[in-house]
Amino acid sequence: MFLCNGNHHSLKWWSFEVLILLSGLLPNPKLETSVLSICLTISSLHFVIPFGLGVGASTRVSNELGSGNPQKALVAVRVAMFLAVVETVVVSTVTFLCRGVLGKAYSNDEQVVDYVAAIAPFLCLSFITDSLQAVISGKSSN
User: Fold this and answer.
1) pTM (2 decimals)?
2) Which of 140, 96, 85 is closest to 122 using CA atoms?
3) CA dist list (Å): 29 to 58, 83, 93, 107, 109
4) CA 20 to 30 Å from 39, out of 49, 57, 92, 102?
């Protein structure tokens, strides 16, 4: 019952918040909390792009299927997946190439900036799954 009516999105965001709070229990809580907050912010900002693409693709596919055009719906799915792959490659490449300065957008502490640079490759890998999942899931309706 709790996951009905869109509450799963709320649960997801609360899990991020709990994760940030739990990072305060690590050996260097100020550093870990700062880096985790920055990485989750970057990941959340990135997720908006493929999620918007997925919502648009979902609407387009629904309209084509409602019009009785399954072939056009298939083309819309393929185009959306292609755009998701292109977006992932571009964003992951830019993020990876800018990993040394990425942390400076959020902090002036060199230790935090260096830690963000070290975690950026893993962030780029998560962009791949986030993008494809967001486009494939589209807009979930109740």
Assistant:
1) 0.78
2) 96
3) 41, 39, 30, 16, 14
4) 57
